[in-house]
């Protein structure tokens, strides 16, 4: 009899707490992530076989949109930048990356598709043909003590795809210092990015100081 009373008491306590748990879950946002404006101070070096190397210093701008479902280990990122200038006799540099992340916000693997210009064997002009490549990589971040500052880094390699991207390969490395306000939905970061992108007869190296200003949404209340 006492056992039945205990089970009944446990059931009443769970029933009483259920509405509170449901209300708490309802208050948690379904989506979280950030939308950032990206500013880059870029130096792009191009080396086409049998030509003198060329260098371009320019600014680039773009966006970074990252979305993650509540309680999910997966996230999606759209990243696009484009230079405001171009060197004489070349096309304009831009880069589009669509990435699936799997893991936490502090450590995740990356699988994505990269699309960017390179040397065209048809026109013999640099940055005049778009190439696609598969990108495999990872990222990590750690808090700087009890401060709202995070130290992060990411790296990836480019694997050739079929079609126009069959000869595209390379890698990228990036570091950042990121800050997110404790009570406001805003953040900022500064870091450095290095890329090497090779296609048939041509090699590109890009170094950039990267600054972002972001709107952060979906954080727990």
- What would you report as the Rg, rounded to the nearest angstrom? 23 Å
The biggest sheet, with number of strands, parallel, antiparallel or mixed sense and barrel status, is: 10 strands, antiparallel, barrel
Helix content: 10-25%
Shape-level CATH architecture: Beta Barrel
The overall number of domains is: 1
Total helical segments: 1
- Oligomer class: single chain
Content-based structural category = mainly beta
The helix/strand series, from N terminus to C terminus, equals HEEEEEEEEEE
Which residue ranges are poorly predicted, with pLDDT under 50 across at least 5 consecutive positions?
20-25
How would you write the strand order of the largest sheet? 1-2-3-4-5-6-7-8-9-10
- Give the N-terminus to C-terminus distance in angstroms: 44 Å
What spatial form do the alpha-carbon principal axes imply? elongated
**Which fold name is given in CATH as the topology?**
Porin
CATH class: Mainly Beta
Secondary structure tally: strands: 10
Average pLDDT reading: 86
Strand content: over 45%
